[in-house]
Amino acid sequence: MSAGRSAQPSRPEQWWRHRPRVPALLASLSLVYGVLSLWSALSPGERIRLEELSPFIPETASAAAVALTAASGLLLVLLAHGLRRRKRRAWRVAVAVCLVLVVTHVVKGLDVEEALLSGALLALLVYARREFTAKGDPSTRWLAVRAFGYLAVGGFVAGMAMIVMYRMRVLGAPTVGQEALTVLRGFIGLPGPVQFRSVRAETMVSATLAGFTILAVLVTAYLALRPVEPLPWLSREDSRRLRELLGRHGELDSLGYFALRTDKSVIWSPSGKAAVSYRVVAGVALASGDPVGDPEAWPGAIVPFLELCREYAWVPAVLGCSDRAGTVYTRHGLNALEIGDEAVVEVAEFQLAGRGMRNVRQAVRRVQRAGYTAKVRRLGDLSSDEVAELARVAAAWRGAETERGFSMALGRFGDPADPDCVVVTAHTGATLRALLNFVPWGAAGLSLDLMRRDRGADNGLNEFLITELLATAPELGVKRVSLNFAIFRAALERGERLGAGPVSRGWSRLLVFASRWWQIESLYRFNAKFQPTWVPRYVCYPGAWSLVRIAVAAMEAEAFWRRPVPFRRLVGRLPLASVARATAPETSGGVGALPGSDRGE
Question: 504 CB contacts (<8 Å, ≥6 apart)?
Answer without folding.
Answer: 491, 494, 495, 497
